[in-house]
Amino acid sequence: TTAAGHGGTSHTPVITPAATVGGGGGGGPLAAFPTYQPTVGTTTTPDCPHYARNCHLRAPCCGALVACRRCHDALVPDGHTMDRRAVTMLKCLACNSQDQPVAPFCAFCGVTFASYFCPKCVLFDDTPGRSAFHCLGCGVCRAGRREDYRHCDTCKACYPVVAFDAHRCSPNVL
Asked: Which residues, in sequence order, are CB contacts of 93 under 8 Å at separation 6+?
């Protein structure tokens, strides 16, 4: 299996230029940031080796329709980078509806884009065997299970629970 859990083949990501960049706001605020609960085999993004999901993102920087920010950054000819937190529009891969607001599911066909969705980071992932959670203290999504990490307010970083009591605080490690 590849790192993203898509089977034994490697696919080259494709950037699809957009005629226009969609506007509008991101999906409404969610009450809590979820911990990733993978549902094996529910979504696929065959052109992305980084994440399994059932949507593509509209890059706010150039209007390209991309599988993820990492695919975008690797493929753009001028070397600019995409801020995934600035993404407001996406395309459903199940029904091909484009330029809908960022949300955990398709506004048209209702398909869930991924088991893990973070509205702050605009991160979708359904990769089997991968866990993720959003740390409010760090302000980012972290790989791993929330219960296995503890945030240190002095360091402004997360540490494994088993190592937390032994870590040396160093202000603003990140």
From this structure: 44, 45, 53, 54, 55, 56
